[in-house]
Write a structure and sequence with these properties.
Structural class: alpha/beta
Distance between the termini: 51 Å
Strand order of the largest sheet: 3-2-4-7-8
Largest sheet: 5 strands, parallel
Radius of gyration: 26 Å
Shape: globular
Helix content: 40-55%
Number of strands: 18
Number of helices: 20
């Protein structure tokens, strides 16, 4: 079999100006085939045989897309990816890798590659990749009403804190890539919203966004739900059924609570992601799928890898890029904006006047640690709105559970200085440990070393603080 699987092209590219692609490969036959394929898509091409000649062409002209082989005579495709990322950040670059060389593809994605294709190259998949890449460059050149409204979608991520602004910037960056993204964070922090924004701001926005809670699917139905089945393939299969991958074709599949997948399903999911194809139950032929994978969980996935409850190879495959959503207690500057937003929405849905919130009630909310995060804040306000009188939310309407807070000027009779020393130190310890774990991608050994404590001491503190 040659390096290309040729299928006829029936799509259309609607661009105002003929785009130009840079093709980098040391094999003349492959460069010619790629040029012919892109030429039929009305794309002009320039060819380079190595890193040096590619650099010359990049310096001489403008390109809308770059396709590079991974192995080049004087370097590698990874050098091209790094060069373009630094000097031409708006130029999408895709790498062509040897079949089965997943590690190289993942490394390229981490460095900023838009996407990758494996040899033998399926020209149908290549054309889809090219179309998506050119959507990004078209929007960058000539913002349309559609792209402007897409960019406004980021405003759905409410808040004024520095952490939230960093999340917005990261989401915009991730939307320009096709790399798998793992979204980590506690329950209720807004992981699914982040996934929807990544999809909506990217080139797949016109295609489906399919979200699935992996923990809600019965284990015996999992393979059928993900990959579909043929009629008669098992008892109860009375009709053909498309799976989630087929439903998300061309778009994004969001795997929420991915940590709840059983090991048997993890193996099948890994193959589907690596091969970009699936095999429905009852069939012998694999079906190519064009789906971007986003995943999330509130659990400590690296810890599950350590215990053998989650496959390490699948973890590395879905965790090409990590997006951490901090808990609300670390984004206190966002609370006021969220309160105003939720009260406006609750009033509109209930058909009542927007309630005001009494000063002490607001103070209580600003001091509260929100173990349930944004989702808990919304629930508290819904309940308080229903209980409040004369459209004014009082502290007793909040019905907040008793807990220690980080507030330092709250006074009690047996605390004359108004300072909960133990609670304050515990909160500082929690923040330092969480920060060290985040910076080391939840590698406990590395985090303990950074904190200057033993692994055993870190494990004890995690259990004490409820972070284990």
């Amino acid at each position: 079999m040659g390096p290309f699987n040729n299928t006829p092209y029936s799509g259309k590219l609607n661009t105002m100006k003929q785009p130009v692609a840079l093709i980098i490969d040391d094999e003349p036959d492959i460069r010619e085939l790629l040029s012919i394929t892109l030429g039929r898509m009305n794309i002009e091409t320039r060819e380079a045989e190595d890193v040096r000649s590619a650099q010359t062409l990049l310096n001489q002209g403008h390109f809308d897309l770059c396709l590079t082989d991974m192995r080049l005579p004087d370097g590698s495709g990874l050098e091209i990816v790094e060069l373009i990322g630094k000097q031409y950040p708006n130029l999408p670059v895709a790498v062509i890798t040897a079949h089965g060389n997943v590690e190289a593809a993942v490394q390229a994605l981490k460095l900023g590659a838009f996407d990758f294709v494996s040899k033998p190259v399926d020209l149908g998949m290549l054309r889809k990749l090219v179309e998506k890449a050119l959507k990004l460059t078209d929007e960058g050149k000539q913002p349309t009403t559609s792209s402007i409204s897409k960019d406004h979608s980021i405003d759905e991520l409410l808040g004024k804190s520095e952490a939230t602004e960093q999340i917005r910037k990261m989401i915009r960056k991730l939307a320009r890539s096709q790399a798998p993204v793992f979204i980590s964070g506690e329950s209720g922090t807004g992981k699914e919203l982040a996934a929807r924004l990544i999809h909506r701001l990217g080139p797949r926005t016109d295609q489906p966004f399919i979200a699935v809670n992996c923990g809600a699917i019965p284990q015996e139905l999992m393979e059928s739900e993900f990959f579909g089945h043929k009629k008669g393939s098992f008892t109860g299969a009375v009709t053909d059924k498309n799976g989630l991958f087929q439903a998300a074709e061309g778009g994004t599949l969001f795997l929420d609570e991915v940590a709840d997948l059983p090991l048997s399903m993890q193996v099948k999911l890994l193959r589907a992601i690596q091969e970009k194809s699936i095999r429905p139950i009852g069939t012998q032929q694999e079906i190519p799928v064009d789906v971007r994978i986003l995943s999330a969980t509130h659990k400590n996935l690296p810890a599950l890898v350590d215990t053998g409850d989650f496959r390490q190879d699948l973890f590395y495959r879905i965790n090409v890029i990590d997006l951490n959503i901090p808990p609300l207690r670390q984004r206190r500057d966002d609370i006021a904006s969220l309160i105003d937003h939720f009260l406006t929405r609750i009033a509109k849905q209930s058909g009542v006047d927007k309630p005001k919130i009494e000063r002490n009630a607001l103070k209580r909310l600003m001091e509260y640690n929100f173990p349930g995060n944004i989702r808990e804040l919304e629930n508290i306000l819904e309940r308080a709105t229903a209980l409040s009188e004369e459209s004014l939310i009082q502290p007793e309407d909040l019905n907040l559970p008793q807990q220690r807070t980080t507030e330092t000027n709250h006074k009690l009779p047996d605390d004359p200085d108004g300072f909960f020393l133990e609670s304050h130190l515990e909160e500082i310890e929690r923040q330092l440990i969480t920060q060290a774990l985040d910076e080391n991608k939840w590698n406990r050994t590395a985090a303990a070393k950074q904190l200057g404590i033993s692994f055993r001491a870190l494990r004890y503190k995690l259990e004490k603080l409820g972070l284990g």
